Each structure stands twice: as C-alpha cells, then as structure tokens.
Amino acid sequence: MTGSLQINPIFSLTYNRLYIILFSLMVFFSLLMILKKSSLGLHVRAVSQNRDMARALSIKSSWVDAITFGLGSGIAGIAGVVLSQLTNVGPNLGQAYIIDSFLVVVFGGVGNLWGTLVAALTLGTFNKFLEPWMGPVLANIIVLVGLVLFIQKRPKGLFPQKGRAAE
Q: Which of 145, 124, 142, 146 is nearest to 134 (CA)?
C-alpha cells in the first residue's frame, strides 16, 4: 500500500488512503444491504420506529438491541483497524475524530445511512478545500459555523426521517 496515485502535478492520493476509501465504501454498502435486505434489518427498523408494536408482533426488542449494539461495535472496531493505517495505535486513536463524527451524524440526519455518506463526503471535501487557504483550525471553525447555520434552518439534517419513524 505504499506509493501514490498522481492525479495532476499538485494533487496525489496515497494508495493506503485510496484503499481505505474503497474498503469504507464496501463496509457501507454491506451494512446498507444488511439493514435493507435481511430480517435483522427489518427487525431493527421495526424496533426503532415503534418498539411496543414490534414487541406485539413477537420481535424480541432486547435481542435486536443487543445485535444492533454488537453490529455497531464491530463497525467501530473496523474503523479502528482502518485508522491504524493512517496513524499510530494508542488509547487516544479516535479522539480527533469524535467531533467530526458527531457533526456528520447531525448534518446527515440521525438514522439515515445515505445522509451519513453524503454528509461525510460534503464536510470532508469542504474542509479539505478550505485548509490550504485558511489553515486547518480556521477551516474547521468555518465548517462548524456553516453547520450551525444549516441546523438553524433544518434541525433534522439533510435527510430527516419521515413518517412514523420521525416521532
């Protein structure tokens, strides 16, 4: 995974970052398929939309909660493995990404995978285009202020949940 892909004289993409992007997209689409096409995904959606009705239809909500927590923990573990390709592994490995992760969830809309993908790509791209001109700290501040202004207009994010799931 050493070396880089030279796109033009001022822009190159290292192979390890390219592999991380491709691997992350594979994990994203795998999770999307699990949540959209499997019985587990159906049960997760049912419990998240209306827990009492799901229990009335004999879905074990405590089991769904445990499996969902396990799935989320597994994806967090995969994220840690992917981050180990970029930086040193230690107890503070993901600390720099906590705020950005929260901003992505708020911007994309809670409970929406497509919103997460669009928000991550949008915020990351916008931030990286601002950094060369304004520096990393000021770029983060501008992105944060822009996000606060956006949330004032659309408090549920880019892709809010609709129907019964929104309650």
A: 142
- pTM of the predicted structure, to 2 decimals: 0.81
Measure the CA–CA gap between 136 and 161, rounded to whole angstroms. 33
Q: State the Cα angle at 159 between 141 and 67, rounded to 5°.
A: 100
- Evaluate whether 107 touches 119 at the Cβ level (below 8 Å): yes
**Phi/psi of residue 14, nearest 5 degrees:** -70, 150
Q: Which of 32, 28, 60 is nearest to 46 (CA)?
A: 60
Q: Are 110 and 157 in contact (CB under 8 A)?
A: yes
Residue 56's pLDDT is 94
Residue 40: the pLDDT is: 93
Judged by DSSP in three states, 67 sits in helix
Mean pLDDT (10-residue bins), the chain, 167 residues: 81 86 94 93 90 93 95 92 85 82 86 88 90 89 90 85 60
Look at the block and give the residue holding tokens 């074990």: 60
Distance CA 120, CA 10 (A): 24
CB 147 within 8 A of CB 141: no
